[in-house]
Design a protein that fits this description.
Length: 411
């Protein structure tokens, strides 16, 4: 990742070199990315690390962010504990229904990376990670008596779900013959998304959070800590204005390498962290080459990228799906709200929708009204969404009142 560029006013340029897949994936976990905020400048509050244990040299917030940006840890092996608490009710049997729906909307395989995002949206998980430069990475999600692995090795991307013995495979294009520049760009973006669909490390979460820092944000150094046996600084990021559901983000930064070792996001409502991802063990030695080797097990069902999805959508296997439109953004910074127009009616109550999914939505919903008409606010501890009866959706890491105000002003 390239360093931030700074000037005498301590403002930094936007970081735009992250893979598209990381940006896509982190939207499910990091609310400031959900609302699509891209920082044009960073207003930093100069601060010096407090004394603590360990005793490290003083560093300003600006210097620490530059240290993160300049981090170049190409090789590592580690274990990450990943906890998410959005305050959702117990999913019970609904979780399997949602997982099944996610699989059907993807490439028809439980090994498709997109079908695993929902698992990281609740509970506590153990994730093993390994990296050897930009062309070799492995992420393994350890489950009860099973394991899911996403492996990137050169031009191959493999997903393997041991519970179902299913394999997902994608291959980077070797030739651009017969493709327009737009088709090539779409394929490259899709390949990047497949490689990074699971935001399983503190570094990936930290990159998204730092992208959303602007002059509505206070950034300070909040002491030091020991993380996974390594000396670290703590970078504290907080919205300056009220109205956001984001209370604070704390990033534990390795004092030697600048690599984010821990990411914690707390809500304004207090209580347990909404997202808490941190290394419990990490080494920076080169992983064995065998770590990234994969051969489908005997009898495994192998799904090639795009096969099932193209068939379901009536496309040829090599044909790209139509790109989704970008939402309109209301407001700025931490109080930004994304607006989608579905062109239809809002979600009906559970009794009309039927089944567990409708009842689940009802449990999150609260009826509201205003100049915009009537609608329902669906709430979690961090991300809230207002769906109006005429089909508009307002989503952000903001309070219910902020969503209603935005919907009223939009009419």
């Amino acid at each position: 990742m390239a360093p931030y560029e700074s000037d005498d006013s301590t403002a930094f340029g936007e970081v735009d070199d992250l893979p598209a897949g990381r940006r896509k994936a982190a939207r499910y976990v990091v609310p400031v990315a959900v609302v699509g905020v891209a920082a044009a400048t960073i207003g930093l509050v100069p601060a010096i690390a407090d004394s603590g244990d360990p005793d490290l040299p003083e560093i300003s917030a600006q210097e620490l962010i530059e240290k993160i940006a300049a981090s170049d840890a190409q090789q590592l092996t580690g274990t990450v504990k990943f906890s998410t608490d959005l305050g959702l009710p117990d999913l019970g049997g609904l979780e399997s229904s949602l997982m099944s729906g996610a699989t059907q909307s993807g490439d028809g395989s439980s090994a498709d990376p997109s079908s695993k995002l929902l698992e990281l949206a609740s509970g506590t998980h153990t994730v093993r990670v390994a990296a050897d430069g930009p062309d070799r990475q492995k992420v393994s999600l350890l489950e009860d008596a099973a394991e899911y692995s996403l492996i990137h090795n050169g031009k191959d991307v493999w997903g393997y779900d041991s519970a179902s013995n299913e394999v997902y495979h994608s291959t980077a294009s070797e030739s651009a013959d017969g493709k327009t520049q737009e088709q090539q760009e779409q394929q490259e973006q899709q390949e990047q998304q497949e490689q990074q669909d699971i935001p399983a490390t503190p570094q990936e979460l930290a990159e998204e959070a730092l992208k959303s820092v602007d002059d509505t944000t206070s950034v300070t150094v909040d002491g030091t800590a020991q993380i996974a046996g390594r000396d670290a600084y703590r970078l504290l990021i907080k919205p300056k204005d009220s109205g956001s559901t984001v209370g604070a983000i704390t990033i534990g930064v390795d004092a030697k390498t600048g690599l984010p070792l821990k990411f914690t996001q707390t809500p304004t409502s207090g209580g347990a962290a909404v997202v808490d991802a941190g290394f419990t063990q990490v080494t920076f030695a080169k992983p064995a080459a065998s770590t990234f080797e994969f051969t489908p097990p005997e009898g495994a069902k192998v799904t090639e990228d795009g096969e099932a999805a193209a068939e379901e959508q009536g496309r040829a296997p090599g044909e790209q799906a139509a790109p989704e439109g970008e939402p309109e953004i209301i407001g700025e910074g931490w109080n930004s709200i994304a607006v989608f127009d579905t062109g239809g009616e809002g979600v009906p109550p559970g009794s009309e929708t039927g089944g567990e999914i409708g009842s689940f939505l009802d449990s999150l919903g609260e009826n509201v009204s205003g100049t915009f008409g009537e609608g329902t606010v669906y709430k979690t501890r961090l991300v809230n969404a207002l769906m109006t009866d005429d089909g508009k959706v307002y989503v952000g890491a903001v309070t219910k009142d902020a969503l209603v105000k935005a919907a009223n002003a939009d009419r």
